[in-house]
Amino acid sequence: MPKNSDAEKNNPCLKEQELSYKCLSKNNFDHGKCELYYANYNNCKEFWNKVRADRRAHGIFPHLPDVADRETIKAEYMRTKPI
């Protein structure tokens, strides 16, 4: 099955999503064993939804940054986030 070429562009949490699916498959779909993967995926979605909303509010297009810029944006957030 060919991979969707735009999947990473449209879903900044693709890696986290795939890891949660892989965990479910590995653990016979026991959701309790994959809670950390879900939490990581949900944190990722929350972060990128905030980035998307902020860019939209400031008129920055595209609302979701390019794949190449995402690591820089995450690193900047981690450097400046309040403790």
TrEMBL record:
Main location: mitochondrion
GO cellular component, one term: mitochondrial intermembrane space
Swiss-Prot/TrEMBL keywords: Disulfide bond, Mitochondrion
Localisation per UniProt entry: Mitochondrion intermembrane space
Stored Pfam families: COX6B (PF02297)
Keyword match Mitochondrion: yes
InterPro entries per the UniProt record, alphabetical: COX23, COX6B-like, Cys_alpha_HP_mot_SF
Superkingdom as given in the UniProt entry: Eukaryota
The keyword Transmembrane is assigned to this record: no
GO biological process, one term: mitochondrial respiratory chain complex assembly
Family the entry assigns: Belongs to the CHCHD7 family.
Protein name: Coiled-coil-helix-coiled-coil-helix domain-containing protein 7
